[in-house]
Write a structure and sequence with these properties.
Blueprint (H helix, E strand, L loop, with lengths): L14 E2 L2 H8 L3 H9 L9 E4 L2 E5 H11 L7
Antiparallel strand pairs: 1-3, 2-3
Helix pairs in contact: 1-2
Length: about 80
């Protein structure tokens, strides 16, 4: 059986289970993502959800945020 790349479109879930997972996939430090949340650049209910006391990044909304911010994520 052929393995798919770790960050392939088909293997990355619609929600990242952690800020760490999103930071690894998109190449930002976890602290950067937390800073964006704290400063209100990422909005709860739009870009992430709080599950218990942990934020869960909404992948598609995060990609759209990055495209609008600086175009750091390419077109799909």
């Amino acid at each position: 059986m052929e393995k798919k790349p770790k960050n392939s479109e088909n293997t990355f879930p619609p929600y990242s289970l952690s800020v760490k997972g999103a930071s690894e996939h998109f190449g930002f430090s976890p602290q950067t993502i937390y800073n964006w949340m704290y400063k209100g650049r990422l909005h709860r209910g739009i870009h992430y959800l709080n599950i218990g006391n942990k934020p869960v990044i909404i992948r598609e909304a995060f990609i759209e945020f990055l495209k609008k911010e600086d175009g750091s994520v390419g077109q799909s």
